[in-house]
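Dear support,

I submitted the protein below through the web form. The confirmation email said the job was done, but the results page showed an empty box. After a refresh the structure appeared. I'm attaching both so you can tell me whether what I see now is the final result or a partial one.
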Amino acid sequence: MPFTPYHFGPSACIALPLRKYIDIPVFILANVVIDLEPLTVMVFGLNYPLHGYFHTLLGGAAVAVFWALIAYWRKNFFQRLMELFHVSYQTGFGKILLSSLLGVWFHVVVDSILYTDIRPLWPLKTNPAYALLNPQTVYLLCKISFLPAIAFYVVAVASYIKKDKYKKTIQKTT
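What the results page shows now:
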């Protein structure tokens, strides 16, 4: 996928409307966590592919499990974060694991369209997704996705406020 901030729009467009099934912060951050691999390669000048084994569906699954364990351990932090953003948040390990896996795989698939060095189906040496779209189209879609993401966020906040008002009304009557 393009430079990391571009991850947030497409990720939010998927996670926000599916928040009943997808853990929003885990899914969005899984799209970012996977890029620690190329960051490490660039920072330390490693003799390793920029998009190596973690940018495969199999290697990405290993990263996803590791990220899910960390996210589950920090779920109370994510709860407070989502309250700060006024978005309802209920999670469990299964939801976290699914969100982590889908987030990493989403990243790998989008990156596979852009980069020749990615082998998403490793150990196979092919990249069937490469050049399905031209890079400018992918970048444009990532930029444009911020608009529906904002709309999905507004809907999520409205739902949160409505539930909060309902809870307060119930508390007053009891």
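Response: this is the final, complete result; the empty box was a page-load delay. The chain has a mean pLDDT of 89.
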